[in-house]
Q: What sequence folds into this?
């Protein structure tokens, strides 16, 4: 619920609990402050500057899936290409074609 109110979204990278950042050494990010406006992967300079840190992982995965889908690739081909489960890919593609309904 707080996603639509105060906090719950990193002010620097825009990540949320459903769409966290990832670093191979540190895992997924969490909140670095009580008001949930900055995540650990932005607050920690070392992690933030690590080229292996990927912010908002779902954004990039969903963006890639949607791009390939728009290019005419099937769910099977996309899951092969990105190494994702077909169920997961199907969920993203379906959500996209439904026009972003919640
Ligand atoms: Zn962040
Ligand atoms: Zn984050």
A:
């Amino acid at each position: 619920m707080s996603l639509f109110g105060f906090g719950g979204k990193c002010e620097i990278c825009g990540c949320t609990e459903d769409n966290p950042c990832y670093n191979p050494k540190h895992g997924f990010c969490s909140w670095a402050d009580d008001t949930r406006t900055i995540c650990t992967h932005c607050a920690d300079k070392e992690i933030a500057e690590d080229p292996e840190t990927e912010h908002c992982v779902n954004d990039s995965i969903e963006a890639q899936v949607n791009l390939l889908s728009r290019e005419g690739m099937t769910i099977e081909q996309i899951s092969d290409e990105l190494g994702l489960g077909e169920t997961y890919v199907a969920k993203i593609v379906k959500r996209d074609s439904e026009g972003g309904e919640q």
